[in-house]
Amino acid sequence: MRLTGRRFAFRSWDSFNSVTPLKGASANRKPDLLLSAVGSPNGRDADWRDVMAFGEVKSKKSTKTLKSSYVESAGKAAFILYAQDGRHAVPCIRMLGTHIYFDIFDRGGSVSTAGFDIHDRPEVFIRILLGLATGSRLRLGFDSSIHVDLLVQPGENKVRKRMTVMMDGAKTSLVLDHLIFISDGLHGRGTTVWQASMDSDFDPKGKGKERERKRARPGTASKKEVVIKDCWVDPLRKYTEGMILDILHKAGVKGIPKLISEEQVATNHPSPSIRTIVNNSTHLLRSLASSHQSPIGDHSYYLRVHSRLVTEPVGFLITSFSCLAELLVAFIDYVNSKYPITLWRLQVY
Amino acid sequence: MDQLLENDTRGVHWELDEPSSKKFLENLFPEDVLLVKSLEEGSFQDFSLQTIPALLGHLRNQKLYGPLANSPDQCGWLSMAAPSSTSSEEYIASFFNNLLEQVQISIGHFIHPRYVGTILIA
């Protein structure tokens, strides 16, 4: 049931897909409840790419339903992380009889609250409901460093995603042109790779006149293409991928991506009451639960920090070769060549 | 599939106890953000309803929220009995949406972010 026609439409819950699988995934899964923004495709057109949160419903609370609902939720969270680039965590609820459980899955593992009877503890229930319905995109697990623009154009509106990175010591806005790879794992590195180009409208100092000049000379701005690789890395490792690329580059190793920049992605703290910009890590979410008993000391999780690597050149995907023979020729050329290959630029992401 | 997921999540799944759960939810969804900052400017209906207990009390007083008197299993909420043909999922979705609407009638409209289309760039 969708209440999009109501006066106070916002995000709404929908149960249509409890019997009809969502689009956008290789396997059929039917979440009992979906939370999506009003205006997004629904019913038969509902897509994993539009899901903000979801819910699982069981008629009663038992050890068996507690476990099975968690495993089902984990599977659906993995679908959402695979379908939505720039999403790092997925919140969901489980209704077991009259008990509500709130879960968040991210790259470090998952956090589940205790079950609260919605009759006996309505204040907890309404907090969860309002939090999911009104929470910012950051609170729902979206990457706050990726900006989504709606470009209104005659005939068709287009969505553009962009991010700001440090390149050559200056802030540079990059437009994400193409998703090259996204990991299908639930936890771990969660690697996402985009092909991106420099935003020709971007002015790091915010000078409007310069931006206008660039607009007045279409095509004159640089269209440098780069590869952006986001992943959640173990901060305790001695060498980062960027450091290794830099070492190889300085050693004169040819045929490897050239590092442009490497940074830890900064974000607002997940708790709205803490107004601090921090490096994004899986620790942040878990720090919200720390209390006198310090569950951090009693639990384990994957400690990961959000790393962003910008490299060039942009290569071809191995799947873009037209046939096996073409691929083999490219590999032979690559192995035999002493210099960077210009015809077939092979890269490993 | 389920076994793979179990292996993936084993050892990295936190099940919080009740006090930690409450603290976690309060930190993630603070009251002042839910009931004040998430509302459209100028849409406040009642400034005395800026805490969850006050909001719940108001909804109960208005008979907008609470178990139905004639519902032995306490499954009827919001003075809205589920039609016999309705599935439990549909009923719960409807209940959630009704509750969100009643909250907005009581305290003000939620800020409405635009829908910007599908997320994936393919």
Folded structure, characterized:
The complex is a heterodimer of chains A (349) and B (122). Chain A is of the alpha+beta class and 349 residues long. Helix content of chain A is 22%, strand content 30%. In chain A, a hairpin with a 6-residue loop joins β8 and β9. Chain A is globular and about 70 Å long. The two termini of chain B are 26 Å apart. With 122 residues, chain B is mostly helical. The longest helix of chain B is centred in the C-terminal third of the chain and has 20 residues.
Backbone CA Rg of chain B: 19 Å
Q: What's the shape of chain B? A: extended
Question: Radius of gyration of chain A in whole Å, from Cα?
Answer: 23 Å
Give the terminus-to-terminus CA distance of chain B. Answer: 26 Å
Main sheet record of chain B: none
* Secondary structure category of chain A: alpha+beta
Report the mean per-residue pLDDT of chain A as an integer.
Answer: 82
Helix count of chain B equals 5
What is the CA–CA distance across the termini of chain A? 43 Å
Please report the two chains with the greatest interface, counting residues with C-beta closer than 8 angstroms to the partner's C-beta: A-B, 91 and 70 residues
Counting helices, strands and paired strands, the structural category of chain B is: mainly alpha
Number of strands of chain B: 1
How can the largest sheet of chain A be summarized?
A: 7 strands, mixed
Uncertain segments of chain A: 1-7, 208-221, 292-297, 340-346
Q: Provide the helix percentage of chain A.
A: 10-25%
Shape of chain A: globular
Helix content of chain B: 40-55%
**Share of residues in strands of chain B:** under 5%
Count of strand segments of chain A: 16
